[in-house]
Write a structure and sequence with these properties.
heterotrimer; A alpha+beta; B mainly alpha; C alpha+beta; B: mainly alpha; Rna Polymerase Sigma Factor, Chain: A; Arc Repressor Mutant, subunit A; 2 domains; about 80% helix; globular; C: alpha+beta; four-stranded antiparallel β-sheet; 9 strands; binds zinc ion
């Protein structure tokens, strides 16, 4: 569909985009690309892909709150209890009534924590002793943070 | 007040490392502030997973805090951080979970392809390789690249490293870097052309 | 005289109630909760009734919508079956079989059209939960979050 260049292959165009061509080759190719539509298209496409990948990663990572990140990583590094309020900020609604509700939930959890020393202790939430199914596959996983056990089976 | 804050942000890397070695918390905050985004992008480029990238980079900083005493001043801090991030991102223990998560992403590729093709026809060639639809389409294809190919592509694209630097940083040959980049580009180009 | 007798009767009555409750608890009454969740890639949504578990699930799944389609709380004796009807002619049957230390042993079955298609035996930490998932449902999947408290 698209025209192909008879002089240069993808390796050279790649090296040009990556600024890896030697001075002589660079001069030659820079002149060529001025007049060769096929090469210019590939350069455009390669640059476009680069930019798209960068921008997608940037957009995705921008959504991570820098303050929450910092307080969480500082807490982990300096062996402090994670700032639970900071973490919960994400889930908190600006409505005060919900804030109160959240605080109540936190209080509830802390009470449970004291009453039940085992609840936050190590070990999975459930030990899977056996799984019996004629499904094609079963997977048992555990979340990293709270070791919540999940069994996944594929229904055929 | 403001001045001293600026000064703090600009302290030399050597000074920063020195302060990190002394376990000063504000130095750690500067380190995180300075490199967080860069490392997040590397992790995301390799894992293509938001939550996991966040987890990985947090682990990277924690391990930097723990191991800063072993850091040799003549090495570059940036390079060291990059290396730890790449290693953490390739960690096999995480991969199992990631693969599981991926398998739970519905395949929207075909839809994306259609959207993108429509867009390509509507727009002129200069803007055909831009925009969110193109981005989404490219990301769908990047996901299909083998991980070892993607790592090279990430260091090339995000970090702008030379072939030699990539080779050195991953402990592979320069020829391997070239061929992996070629693989990545060939498959991406094929997908946008077809 | 009469008054103190009354007080004593009341006290006895009170202690009996306490004792009975205690005995019933020790006898293995297990509070079992089942939440049926529909996870899909639809518009971003988290059911308020799932706030405790969704962050957990999100660390493993990539769905954007989590709907609570059914919730059932049952007080089960040892070896007593608790049944929850599920979409697609399926039934979930949870049975506490043993209490050992801080864990409750459950037998969990999923039946489809009367036939058992899945069984697992798990030892659930008291006051904790397990999530089982798999059946396809309405462009997504069904997940069952089962919690137990003795
Ligand atoms: Zn040409």
């Amino acid at each position: 569909m698209e025209k192909k260049c008879s002089q240069y292959n993808l390796e050279t165009i790649s090296a040009f985009v990556d600024k890896e061509l030697g001075p002589k080759q660079l001069d030659k190719f820079a002149c060529h690309v001025e007049t060769c539509e096929a090469c210019r298209l590939v350069v455009d496409q390669l640059q476009g892909i680069k930019e798209a990948f960068k921008s997608a990663a940037e957009d995705e990572m921008k959504s991570i709150d820098s303050q929450v990140f910092l307080s969480s990583v500082t807490a982990k590094s300096f062996n402090r209890k994670p700032a639970i309020f900071e973490k919960l900020k994400e889930y908190l609604s600006p409505k005060p009534i919900l804030k109160i509700a959240t605080i109540a939930v936190i209080l509830g959890f802390s009470l449970m924590y004291f009453r039940q020393p085992g609840i936050n202790g190590i070990g999975p939430s459930a030990i899977v002793n056996s799984v019996d199914t004629n499904m094609s596959s079963v997977m048992i996983i555990e979340t990293i943070e709270t070791k919540h056990t999940i069994i996944w089976f594929t229904e055929t | 007040m403001n001045n001293s804050a600026v000064h703090r942000d600009n302290i030399e890397e050597a000074e920063l490392v020195e302060r990190l070695k002394r376990g000063q918390e504000w130095a750690f905050a500067i380190l995180v502030k300075k490199y967080r985004m860069q490392l997040l992008k590397i992790a995301y480029g390799i894992t293509l997973d938001r939550e996991e990238s966040c987890e990985i980079v947090q682990d990277v900083f924690v391990s930097v805090h723990k191991n800063i005493k072993n850091f040799r001043q003549e090495a570059s801090l940036k390079g060291w951080l990059r290396k730890i991030t790449v290693n953490h991102s390739l960690n096999w223990k995480r991969k199992f979970k990631r693969r599981f998560r991926w398998s739970h992403t519905p395949l929207e590729q075909e839809d994306e392809k259609m959207q993108y093709t429509v867009q390509k026809e509507k727009k002129n060639p200069e803007t055909a390789y831009q925009g969110k639809e193109f981005e989404k389409f490219v990301m769908g294809r990047i996901k299909k690249l083998p991980e070892k190919v993607r790592v090279v592509f990430v260091l090339n694209t995000f970090e702008g490293l030379s072939y030699d630097e990539i080779a050195q940083s991953l402990g592979i040959k320069k020829g391997t870097v070239k061929s992996r980049l070629h693989t990545a580009r060939k498959s991406l180009l094929e997908s946008i052309r077809s | 005289m009469l008054r103190s007798a009354n007080t004593i009767t009341l006290a006895i009555f009170f202690f009996t109630i306490c004792f009975l409750t205690q005995a019933a608890m020790a006898g293995g009454n297990v509070n079992t909760g089942v939440r049926v969740i529909h996870a899909s890639s639809g518009p971003q949504f988290i059911d308020p009734g799932l706030r405790d578990i969704v962050p957990e699930l999100k660390s493993v799944f990539r769905y954007t919508s989590y709907r609570l389609i059914k919730q059932k709380s049952m007080n089960l004796n040892r070896n007593q079956q608790g049944k929850v009807n599920l979409p697609g002619n399926r039934t979930l049957v949870v049975t506490p079989t043993k209490i050992k230390g801080k864990r409750i042993q459950y037998s969990i079955n999923i039946n489809k059209a009367g036939q058992r298609i899945f069984n697992t035996q798990v030892s659930l930490k008291n006051n904790s939960s397990i999530t089982i998932g798999g059946p396809k449902f309405k462009k997504g999947y069904l997940l069952f979050n089962i919690s137990g408290r003795k």
